Amino acid sequence: MPNNFNKKIEDALSSLDGIKKASPSPYFFTRLEARMQKERSIWEEVSSFVAKPFVAIACISLLIMINASVIISSEKSNQTTISDQNNEIATIDEYNQVSSTFYEYVNTKP
Fold this sequence. Notes:
The protein is mainly α. It contains four helices and no strands.
């Protein structure tokens, strides 16, 4: 068992033989500097601002609060509408019970 363990250690260390320092591709730094100096358009500025986590969380929170306020106000208006409809139905019933004869024509022939 120790022999197998030592062999694995030797294999791991030998895998590092011939390793070279990583270097970037040619003209990498030139392209990087050009990209950093490039002017950003207004849309890039806006999208980078909106992509920030704080702004995104604030917008989502605002939408949730607006939705909650609309739901709450619609429930209140729905309750007042029901009571208004009950009052309206009562007045319609009252008008139906009273019959007016002002518009009934009387036979006016002699």
